[in-house]
Write a structure and sequence with these properties.
Largest sheet: 2 strands, parallel
Radius of gyration: 19 Å
Shape: globular
Order of helices and strands: HHHHHHHHEEEHEHH
Strand order of the largest sheet: 1-4
Number of strands: 4
Structural class: mainly alpha
Number of domains: 2
């Protein structure tokens, strides 16, 4: 029973962390600086898919066809051709199951699985700004009165000056300044901390819950 409760708590916290990261993405979007973050690449690609005459409604396949640099960096050059074939085969024999493409980094596997369910109208709403209409994100953060954990992983800048991360240290400081009961932790990891350093992630989440419960 304890293991079940622990799993549920970790799952809830993971969802909360994802939501917080999304809020911070959104909070920055009205600022032109967000145009220089890696997030805008995803938003732009979502918009382009919906505007393209060649988009047939299968966003995962569209994304694979237009992400050669991603696969060259995180798998190997030309991997998109092999992966596209693997996706087609898996869907043929497992049409009712979540996508499972092995033999590549876990973060890439999760990316493929998530994009198989992704609706590009979501990203397009960030691209054109409609997601943020009539909503003050900083004020929303200020109204949160429960403990909040903000985990920030490694960030850097690509050759073209694009921020490679959800937020810069300065953006994180702005978010923390809006929270009445926030805790900030830096983790030496890639973007997907719960997959790349799972033991450390679980320990951080458990400690956070214990502190909140005892505090």
């Amino acid at each position: 029973m304890k293991k079940v409760v622990r799993f549920i708590l970790i799952l809830i916290c993971a969802l909360i962390l994802i939501l917080c990261g999304l809020i911070i993405y959104v909070a920055a979007y009205n600022n032109p600086a967000v145009k220089t973050t890696v997030a805008n690449k995803a938003f732009t690609q979502s918009h382009n898919a919906l505007e393209s005459e060649n988009y047939d409604g299968d966003y995962l396949m569209y994304w694979i066809d237009n992400s050669k640099q991603f696969f060259a960096t995180y798998v190997f050059p030309g991997a998109e051709k092999l992966i596209k074939g693997m996706v087609t085969i898996y869907r043929t024999f497992h049409s009712d199951e979540p996508l499972e493409i092995a033999f590549m980094p876990v973060s890439v596997q999760e990316m493929l699985r998530g994009l198989d369910y992704y609706d590009p109208t979501f990203g397009a709403a960030f691209y054109d700004g409609t997601w943020n209409e009539d909503f003050d994100h900083e004020e929303a953060l200020k109204k949160i009165d429960c403990p909040v954990l903000l985990i920030q992983a490694n960030t850097g800048y690509l050759a073209d000056g694009t921020l490679d991360g959800a937020m810069s240290k300065e953006m994180a400081e702005v978010a923390m300044g809006c929270l009445s009961d926030g805790k900030y932790l830096y983790v030496d990891s890639g973007h997907v901390t719960n997959l790349e350093v799972p033991d450390q992630f679980i320990a951080i989440v458990e400690d956070f819950f214990l502190e909140a419960e005892n505090g």
